[in-house]
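Researcher: Structure prediction, please.
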Amino acid sequence: MVVERKFIQDLIIKWRISKYMESSLMRAGFSRVEIQKTPVITRITPYVMNPGRVIGRGGETIDALTDTMKKRFSLDNPQISVAEVSNAKLEPRLVAKSIADALERGINPRRLIHTAIKEIMQNGALGAEIIAKGKLASKGARAKKMKVRLGYLPKSGNSSKLVDMAQIASYPKYGAIGVTVRIVQPGTKFPDRDVKKVDLPKNIAASEFRRAHGQPVRGPVPQQRPSAPAPSPDAKPAQEQKPAHEPEPAAQPVVKPAEAPK
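Model: Predicted structure follows.
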């Protein structure tokens, strides 16, 4: 029973450190934190978009953060090493934060979700899911749920532990909206299947095509006409041919001059 209580306390401390890092490193683009505890030190690795803002001038900011870890969470010899996020489109917290900020600015949620999941899959993700729940419509409308899912995304068993997830709350003027993002990172190996990259569905691809060409989002899928191949410089100009329906010019009657009187 004592061992189980120790494990629970360690998990609670890790959760509290993650929440504190999220609130204090928000301006640096905080994504996630990894905590590795050993008998000698406690290694804390926050992943951010701007490591220079966390380190500070001469290391002042990271030294102050280390002292806070000692006093606030009673950690023995904590060591903080800042890591930079390699791809922001594959970080669930950063994607959810960008969607939440855009919802507060009043951007259409359907367009936001389709664009975000398209960018995630184009960056090599094997699966992704974005869920938005809350006051998605205008004032007075009922709360609803919007979900878009692509690729392979397990939600039960040991395979579900390989999925990265983040939840962010957005607060527009009509009511709160919860945003949940799940991403399967590129190169993830599942024990039960071999996952390959999937293509975008037709509705998302069509909406992106219309938006790129300035066409209305709704309606039938536009068809691109194939462009004529460019003539090669060595090609000879073709001889002009008369159209088949053009009539031949009528023959003019020959008029003989009148003979002079004798």
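Model: The domain at 88-212 is CATH 3.30.1140.32 (Ribosomal protein S3 C-terminal domain).
Researcher: Thanks, that helps.
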